[in-house]
Each structure stands twice: as C-alpha cells, then as structure tokens.
Design brief:
Elements lengths: L1 E5 L5 E7 L5 E2 L3 H17 L5 E9 L5 E7 L6 H4 L23 H11 L3 E6 L5 E7 L4 E2 L1 H11 L1
Parallel strand pairs: 2-4
Antiparallel strand pairs: 1-2, 3-8, 4-5, 5-7, 6-7
Helix pairs in contact: 1-3
Length: about 160
C-alpha cells in the first residue's frame, strides 16, 4: 500500500508506505495513533516548507513491526539527540525560539512505545533530516501471512 498526501499550498508532502496492509497490531489504537501523529507533527513543525516526509510500516527481520517517520528537513545535531527524550527539553531552549511546544512529544512517544513493549529510535544528522523508528514487538502483530510464516518456522 502506498499513498501520497500533499498539505495545502504544497507546504509538505507526506508519502505513506505500508508493506503488508493485512497485518494487525494488538495495541491501544488511540495511544499508538497519538504517538505516530506526534512524530509526524514534529517532522512538519521543525522542517521548512516543502519538506518531504515518509511514513512507513513494515516487519523487520526479527518479526517486529517498524513504524517509520522520516523527513528531509534540517536534522538535529548528534549532541542534542539524547536530550530530546527528556521531558521539557527542546533543541532550542532560548526564549526567542520560533517553534512552540513544551518538549513533551518525544517523551510521550517513548512512554507509549514502552507501554506496548516497544522502543523508539531517533537518528539524525544536520542537513539530512530525522528518522524516527517506532518498534513494536512481534508478539503484538497478527496477520494471515505472518501467522503462516510463524507456523512454518516452528514446524
């Protein structure tokens, strides 16, 4: 499954790519939706107009479900990546920062992932955008093809 969404005035292009649309994940759908929305909101908020964002979902070689939000925005310096997971921390802590927010988005996404037995990984380099990968454990995934492959592996 693949879709393309362009926000008003061509401000942002979001491409959605799903490896297997038949997979289901056992989760609190409202919380997981909020986590994914926070990652997309951050990609839009901290990037210039015209940014391209890819939102994808696919199973990993370990059988986990990876949900990816990747943008081609300005990126984050390596030294500031670790602080993003701290509540109320932002890459720009000055009083003159141009972006609003409390600095709770990434910590919230991490808490939602942890509540489901998953993890959040964020990779970035200045000028190369941000790659946020939400990993949900294989035990939470259901789907006909996945069930069949697990049965063969156990067999």
């Amino acid at each position: 499954f693949s879709a393309l969404v362009t926000l008003p005035a061509g401000a942002t292009e979001i491409r959605i790519v799903v490896q297997d649309a038949d997979l289901e994940i056992c989760c609190d759908r409202q919380l997981l939706s909020r986590a994914i929305s926070k990652l997309i909101d951050n990609a839009i908020k901290f990037s210039p107009r015209g940014v391209k964002i890819v939102v994808g979902a696919a199973t990993t070689s370990a059988g986990d479900l990876g949900i990816l939000v990747n943008d081609d925005g300005p990126g984050v310096a390596e030294g500031k990546l670790a602080s993003l997971s701290q509540p109320f921390a932002q890459t720009d802590m000055s009083m003159r920062r141009s972006k609003e927010g409390l600095g709770l988005g990434i910590p919230l996404v991490q808490a939602i992932a942890a509540a489901h037995g998953g993890t959040l990984r964020i990779d970035s380099k200045p000028g190369e955008g941000v790659r946020a990968l939400l990993l949900m454990p294989a035990a939470r995934i259901r789907g006909a093809a996945l069930t069949a492959s697990r049965a063969v592996a156990a067999g």
